[in-house]
Sequence to fold (162 residues):
Amino acid sequence: MATSPKAPTSSWVAFSAIFVIAVDQWSKYWAVGALSDRSIDVFWKLRFHLVANTGFAFSTGQGLGPILGLVALVVVVVLWRMRSRFPSTVGTLALGLVLGGACGNLIDRALRTPGWGRGAVVDFIDFRFWPVFNVADMAIVIGVLLLSVTMWVEQRGGLNGA
Fold:
């Protein structure tokens, strides 16, 4: 009996997404506890500074939480269904990063006060010259960049499943 090529891809996408969700949620738990009454200067311009983001990227769209939650949920479902289209190791990891990041921020919107769709995403990584962000945001950006490069290279026949 032949093994389905989707099984390893699905497992690795799920594993990397769950890893991102765990690190993201742990870091947000830490940030809420440690930064509620202070900021921590790390080095140069980097500091940890707690911000509640009810909008989306770069704190735009404040108050659109229910719509953003729905859009994020649709994106997660669509990306999960597309997982077999990214058979390379880099593509699998990248897809897991995007899914994990989207789920991490979706968890905030769903579970943080005041509830579904209206919860604020916890942001705390602050370079003072860039909008404040979190681990989920980093995973999404890195994942999208990796997916873009992977798709570009694969379209030119350069990665063939590597």
